Amino acid sequence: MPQPLPHKLSSPELDQLSPMLNQEGDVWTADFQGLTLKTALQPIYSISHKRIVGYEALIRAFDTKANQILPVDLFKLPASDFENLLLDRLCRYLHIRNYGSIKDELNWLFLNVSPKVATVGNPSDSFFGQLLKKTGLPPHRIVMEIVEQPTDDAERLRETVAYYRELGCLTAIDDFGAGHSNFERIWNLSPDIVKLDRTLLTRATEDPKARQILNGIVSLLHQSACLVLLEGVETRSQAMIAIDAGVDFVQGFYFRKPSTELSGLETSPADFGQLLDEYKQRNQISFDPTRQVVNYFERFFLRAVDRMWSGATMAEACTDLLNHPTVSRCYLVDANGIQIDATLVSNAGTRNLDPRFRPLEDSSSADWYRQQYLRQALAQPETLQVTAPYLCVTGAYMCVTLSLGFYQNGELRVLCCDILSSPIDPRISTD
User: Fold this and answer.
1) H helices within 171-288, ranges in order?
2) pTM
3) What is residue 322's three-state secondary structure?
4) Cβ–Cβ < 8 Å for 116, 151
5) SS3 state of residue 185
6) Pair type for strands 142-147 and 398-408
7) Sign of dihedral through CA atoms 211, 217, 222, 228?
8) Start and end of every EAL domain (predicted)?
9) Closest CA to 404 of 393, 412, 392
10) Beta-strand pair 249-250/35-46
């Protein structure tokens, strides 16, 4: 018979919640407003380890006729902050009870908590600590997920996250990349793990530019000392995108759907060996476009430098470079990173000029020392350097930059050349 809701939660709260739980063998369920709540677990995999490293606990609700109720409808039932808090704690109590019955003494359990619930009441209350003590689940095996959404009390949320961290739990930001995402929350909360919303993956599947942005977000999060989990992986191609993006963990229907059948989860198969072999093969058989650019244009650069050594002007020395259909512009920089004289713009570069960016065109005396291609050329004279594709500040177009350090009259100079990154294949010669 369903247990009535307690009228208030007083310490110790577990005493009020325990009667709402039912055990059948190793499986626990809970009663809430005439519904039966069950735990569903979905594995989380480490790509590098090629195995399960944790499970996300999800709530599933069923009515008296065993019809499943959508989670969004379940969480609409609470009519007050008190009932929101009760449902949140009941779900966590249920999940931990069920996870404790699984023969797994290593992997993480990911538990969701919304900022709305996390900021209700005293963040340093003893409920969760008592729950872990009662069930015997070590706190270092818990990852508390904060759903990425606005909160009215950012300071209280920070205190709540600090409370879980002091208990010994890991913390995670969930749904990063959805509507309310921003890096300020990453900086304020310093989570151990960031879960990227599946919309980032969906866009990356459809748009190469979005794929580059995904890779950049992963890189920034790693630089912020966060491990990165990509959720919503539903196809093999999306699994390959996740591998290429450099995320640490993946989760999604492609590997396994959430299941209320909790036995045997620790042996869930995954084909990471095949996926990684395919990734290696793809990267081995595909040519490196930047290496191709270096190999092709090196002779043009050496020819230009020889001509400058012989007393030719910059324009005369760079004639062959500027006549190539993929070359946008050439310029010379001194050892301090300061551009010498005006930029030489090719016919291709002239055609690519956008009048909206005219204030950026004149780069004489510009300081390029911050650019990695410039510092590398200064550090390794006589070695041609090349960048990955990037947005050129002088014309707002995508390019790669080649740079070669050389000595002229005893002074170190760097010859730089911007190559339009698309659509011309740099391997095509026009000699």
Assistant:
1) 183-189, 198-206, 208-223, 236-245, 272-285
2) 0.78
3) helix
4) yes
5) helix
6) unpaired
7) negative
8) 20-272
9) 412
10) antiparallel
Domain ranges of the chain: 14-285, 289-420
Q: Give the Cα separation of 178 and 166 in Å (integer).
A: 28
Is-cis flag, bond preceding 423, omega within 30?
A: yes
3-state secondary structure of 188: helix
Q: At what angle do helices 208-223 and 236-245 cross, to 10 degrees?
A: 40
pLDDT tens string, the chain, 431 residues long: the values are: 555 555 554 434 788 889 999 998 889 999 999 999 999 999 999 999 888 999 999 999 999 999 999 999 999 998 888 888 889 899 999 999 999 888 888 899 999 987 666 665 555 567 888 899 989 999 999 999 987 566 557 787 888 888 899 999 999 998 888 766 678 888 888 999 999 999 999 999 999 889 989 999 999 999 999 999 999 999 999 999 999 999 999 999 999 999 999 876 756 567 888 999 888 888 765 556 677 888 899 999 999 999 999 999 999 999 999 999 999 999 999 999 999 989 999 987 777 777 877 888 888 899 999 999 999 999 999 999 998 888 888 877 788 999 999 999 899 999 999 998 764 333 333 33
Verify cis geometry, omega within 30 degrees of 0, for the bond prior to 12.
Answer: yes
Q: Which two tokens stand for residue 169?
A: 């739990």
Q: How far apart are CA 56 and CA 39, in angstroms?
A: 10
Tokens of 382: 């006589």
Half-sphere exposure of 268 (CA within 13 A, CB side): 27
Query: Looking at residue 104, what DSSP letter applies?
Result: -
CA distance 15 to 398: 63
Its CATH architecture, for the domain 14-285, is: Alpha-Beta Barrel (3.20)
- CATH code at 289-420: 3.30.450.20
The DSSP output letter for 116 is H
- Cα distance between residue 179 and residue 221, in whole Å: 18
- Give the single-character DSSP code of 367: B
Instruction: Please tell me the distance from the alpha carbon of residue 182 to that of residue 210, in angstroms, as a whole number.
Output: 17
Going from the C-alpha of 92 to that of each of 14, 36, 167, 344, the distances in angstroms are 11, 15, 16, 65
